[in-house]
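Field reference: "sequence" (input) and "structure" (output). Example, DNA repair protein RadA:
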Amino acid sequence: MWRPTADLAVLAAIISSLRNKALPRDWVLFGEVGLTGEIRPVQAGEERIRDASKHGFSHAIVPAANAPRKPLKGMKVTAVKHLSEVISALREAAI
């Protein structure tokens, strides 16, 4: 069964593969991607970010609606609304 939560991570993996650059191991991505490229929120998004931080991830790319209300220590969160913003974030990270 497909999990829409993984849409964003799968697309980022495809982009990194096409560019022959690996995603950093300490990054986490989640979100549902619509047919027009919009990034939709997922259930328990803030909890997912907190858990990722506890497990050593240092950067999260997440739907804007799932962005934490308060900053998390040691975790950079990039909140996105459209796939083009994800591509820009990956480009800035040289991916």
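Strands lie at 27-29, 32-33, 39-40, 59-63, 76-80.
The chain has one domain: 4-92.
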